[in-house]
Design brief:
With 445 residues, the chain is α/β, with parallel strands linked by helices. The chain folds into 2 domains: 229 residues, Aspartate Aminotransferase, domain 2 (3-Layer(aba) Sandwich), CATH 3.40.640.10; 117 residues, Aspartate Aminotransferase, domain 1 (Alpha-Beta Complex). It is built from 15 helices and 11 strands. It is globular.
């Protein structure tokens, strides 16, 4: 395997273009001490060899996706200026690029009007959404599926807002009957619907959630940090498609460009349907805002200093790969789901394996077949280790009996959970590499 070296020449070329905007300044030539830099960078490169090959198609484990070359180059180029998108003073061009890129994300979810910005990642984006939600419905509870990301409970604790999990059904989705019972008490202000749980890749039934929320006067926040970009895919199953099509009716949405959006870490995005949410952010900081009457991104963000380079990288990526349903980006997203469906089909037809639920997006859950849950766990760990020995890197996940038992009627649960294998097939290349991946699995089981 080799890294992309060819694009580095393009970076050097673009630095000359960037320099063209500063020709009226007195001459100043930075003089880095190359002799001193070399051994330090060599040591760093050698230390970085101790990594899984996240960028390679044989990495089919955790939710890690390599940035697009244009994102890497644009980010690196912007770092030579190092803009800060907290205020227009710190990043004039990058702040405008952020607004444009965020507007394109909002349009992907069907919103022409919106309030939004980039942030460090999904955790910070969800915190902002729940912070606003708690101010709209002070003292009321926030609820999310027990399969939702753990960060919602943690954020609620930080915000000192009551939180409760909603049980999930056998498909891993929020149980609508349980949600209705909880809403009927009248103490819930916000329902978090997950469009792509990071553990098992399921989507909550957003249409039903929105209908119930309207009945009980609740906000609906959509956590689409992982799954949001699948709204562009043309190969979702009908129920999943219906849920994604309901996103425009939600109050807020989170999506992480550093997951399926081909961006370096960290790059998350929070979007509010109603721009009036900006009133909750109002604050005074006269030492920060003094050169522009335009709205500063820091006036609609809980974070202060933020890397303008993240906005430049996202803007460049969306310029190259527009967020349209008929474009290359959407086709690549659909290929990720194709790869997941292909792997699931092969596993389902092979008696050596157990499957759990059909993939809605691009996460596949599976395990080696055994008669007892404890044996399933032991075999999963062995297969994980043996696959790594063949350079196929998977992930492990601990799943409860309540989810597994309905799908594994012949397995005796001598433990309350089982260790299973989890594959996030986030690279479009996984579709073309599935024969190679399957060949390794077939050989080691």
């Amino acid at each position: 395997m080799s890294f992309d070296h060819k694009s580095l020449a393009l970076l050097s070329e673009m630095l000359e273009v960037l320099e063209g905007g500063f020709t009226d300044l007195p001459d100043y030539q930075p003089a880095p001490d190359i002799a001193a830099l070399r051994p330090v960078l060599t040591a760093a490169a050698e230390r970085m060899q101790d990594n899984y090959p996240y960028q390679h198609p044989l990495y089919a484990g955790q939710m890690l996706k390599p940035p697009h070359p244009v994102a890497r180059l644009a980010y690196a180029m912007a770092q030579f200026v190092n803009p800060n998108n907290h205020a227009m003073d710190g990043g004039r061009a990058s702040s405008m690029m952020e607004r444009e890129a965020v507007a394109e994300l909002a349009a992907m979810f069907g919103w022409k009007q919106h309030l939004g910005h980039l942030c460090g990642g999904g955790t910070m984006a969800n915190m902002e959404a729940l912070w606003v939600a708690a101010r709209v419905h002070p003292g009321k509870k926030i609820v999310a599926s027990d399969q939702a990301h753990y960060t919602h409970g943690r954020i609620s604790e930080v915000l000192q807002v009551p939180f409760a999990p909603v049980p999930s059904d056998a498909s891993g989705r929020m149980d609508m009957s349980a949600l209705k019972d909880m809403l009927s008490v009248g103490d819930i202000g916000t329902v978090v619907a997950t469009m792509g749980t990071t553990g098992i890749g399921t989507t909550d039934s957003l249409e039903e959630i929105i209908n119930l929320a309207n009945t009980y006067d609740c906000r609906v926040h959509v956590d689409a940090a992982y799954g949001g970009y699948f709204t562009l895919a043309d190969n979702l199953n009908p129920n999943t498609r219906r849920s994604f099509d309901c996103i425009p009716a939600a109050d807020s949405v989170v999506v992480d460009p550093h997951k399926h959006g081909l961006q370096p870490y960290g790059c998350g995005c929070i979007l509010f349907k109603d721009p009036a949410a900006g009133a909750f952010y109002k604050h005074d900081s006269p030492y920060t805002y003094f050169t522009s009457a335009d709205l500063h991104l820091g006036e609609i963000s809980l974070e202060c200093s933020r890397a303008g380079a993240a906005a430049v990288a996202l803007w460049a990526t969306q310029r190259l790969l527009p967020l349209t349903a008929d474009g290359e980006f959407a086709r690549d997203i659909a290929l990720c789901r194709d790869a997941a469906c292909d792997l699931h089909a092969r596993l389902s037809l092979d008696d050596r394996f157990l499957t759990i639920i059909q993939p809605e997006l691009d996460i596949v859950l599976w395990a080696p077949n055994a008669s007892k849950a404890s044996a399933v766990s032991a075999l999963s760990q062995k297969l994980f280790d043996d696959a790594a020995g063949q350079n196929l890197h998977l992930a492990l996940v601990e799943l409860p009996e309540s989810l597994l038992a309905p799908n594994w009627p012949d397995v005796e649960f001598d433990t309350t959970s089982a260790t299973c294998l989890r594959s996030c097939l986030m690279k479009p290349e996984h579709a073309a590499w599935m024969d190679k991946i399957w060949g390794i699995l077939d050989a080691i089981v």
